[in-house]
Amino acid sequence: MKMRRWSIEERSAGIFVLALLFCSLFCFALAMAIGKNEPEESAPEQVQDKNILPMQELPRVSPADAAYFLAATQDAGLAYQNRLTFFGESTTAHLKSRGVLPASQVLADESGTKRLSARLPFESVRDPESGKSTCFLEVIEKKKPAILVLSFGLNGLLNYAKDTGLFKQDYNTLLDSIQSASPDTKIILQTVYPVAKECDRFDDPTDTNRKIGMLNAALPEIASNYENVLCVDTASVLKDLDGSLDPAFDQGDGYHLTASAYKRILQYLRTHAWEEEL
Fold first, then answer.
1. What is the residue-wise DSSP string for 138-199?
2. What is the span of the domain harbouring residue 106?
3. Domain count, the chain
4. How far is C-alpha 188 from the geometric centre of its chain's CA atoms?
5. N or C: which end of the chain has fewer CB within 10 A?
6. What is the pTM of this model?
7. C-alpha 215: how far from its chain's center?
8. In this structure, is residue 40 part of a structural domain?
9. How far apart are CA 275 and CA 215, in angstroms?
10. 253: left (phi over 0), alpha (psi -120 to 50) or beta
C-alpha cells in the first residue's frame, strides 16, 4: 500500500496549525505564571466605630433569642420617637433632666429613680398631665402609651445576679400589671447599661459588667412569655472595645450618662423600631 504524499500547501497548513497551538499554550502558561506573582487585592479597610464592640465581641444571641429582639430598621424618625414613653431607674429619668426628652415621655417620681421589685407597679410617679404624684398603674391605665420602654437591673444588681430567677419574677410582676392596665401597649425591655472601668459605686466594675451580662441574657426569656413584649440591645451602643461604658458617655461617676449617650440610645431605638408602629 502506497503512502499518500502531502503536498507543499498541505504541509505548510499543518505547520501553521501546530505553530498556532504552541503559541496559544505558551501564552496561557505565561499568564498563569504572572498571575501567581501578582499580590492579592487587599480587602477594603473596615472603619471601626470606637463606641461599638467589633462583631466578634458582641454578645452572641441564639436564633431562638433573636426572635425576641427588635431587628434593625430604617430610621423611624421623630414621629416614632414621640410615641415612646420611658420608665426605669435614674439612667432613664435623666432623659428628662438632661433635656433630651420632655417630661410627658418620662415617668418618674421626685427621687428621680426607681427599683424593680414586686411592689413597683403600685408606687407613685408624676402624672404627666396633672403633675401630681399618682400610682404608676393609674397613669398607665389613663395614658395607655403606644410603646413603653423599660430599663431596670442596675439597682439591686447584686441580689439579682445571685438569683436571676428573682429578676425574672419581679419583671414578670411588672409586665403582668402593665398589660392588665393597658393591654394594647407594646413593651420594650432595654438591656442593662454597662458601667465604666472606674466606677466608685462598685468595687469591681469588670465583675459588675459580667453580672449585668447575666441579667441581659435573661431578658429574652422574660419576653418569650408575653405578647407585645420585645427586647432591644441599646446597651451595645454605649460600650467601648472592652465592653465597659465608653468614657465619652460617662457623666463622671462611672454609670450615669451624658446627653450624647441618650441621643445615641434614641437613635438606636429609632433604627430598631417596632415595625407594626411605623
1. HHHHHH--SEEEEE-SSTTHHHHHH-HHHHHHHHHHHHHHHHHH-TT-EEEEEPPPP--SS-
2. 63-277
3. 1
4. 12
5. N
6. 0.78
7. 15
8. no
9. 26
10. alpha
